[in-house]
């Protein structure tokens, strides 16, 4: 089913407020084989000059998933989650974030592009991540929905 | 904080050679990353979508690329990190992350990044911009 681009981009996705937890960061470090102790050991992080465990570069993507139905923004467009591929991901960094921070993530769909006669639809979402008035990072995600049977 | 010296176009980052990605790796990453899409962890769901098997999360490989970069410079020096996911990473693949400086502009360097598997398949390409001082 083709995605209604106008509807997608008009969609108001509610902002998400997340508290960054030490345990989550330590688990992420374990799951990604991160052996630098500043990402899992508070004492090591502090010895390296950080106030707490740093949020690692790609974890902002995970913070956005900290909700009961994290893929609602894409499934609400009629997309079957099983058909999705992650096409591109980028982050621009403005300041470090740490365990104990409360961050606000505000996503918005900024583009929907149909390719190969509708067999592929590329959905681009941009998310700003802030702490109070400070911009921490911006994330850009391109998901590719594969419409089988369209060729 | 110390400045990186002798960084020039062509400088290669020490590669990051990973262990093979097992189903356990994927289960742990699903939990730790919050990406519970069953296509990465549930063989039945993968088969229902016409696939032979589950495959790794793209963000797992991107996390490895981030490790490559933070092994080279402190994280606060990373200005941006971008990747394209160009091929699926199958279960039991053994990724290696590489990076090479392709531009130095003042105090910033642009590093071209890639993840390749043992059979030569490139799964991710990308770029990081880092501050050298």
Automatic annotation (TrEMBL), chain A:
Ranges where the FAS1-like dehydratase domain occurs: 9-137
Top-rank taxon: Bacteria
Pfam families noted in UniProt: FAS1_DH_region
InterPro entries: FAS1-like_DH_region (IPR039569), HadA-like (IPR016709), HotDog_dom_sf (IPR029069)
Signal sequence bounds: none
Protein name: MaoC family dehydratase N-terminal domain-containing protein
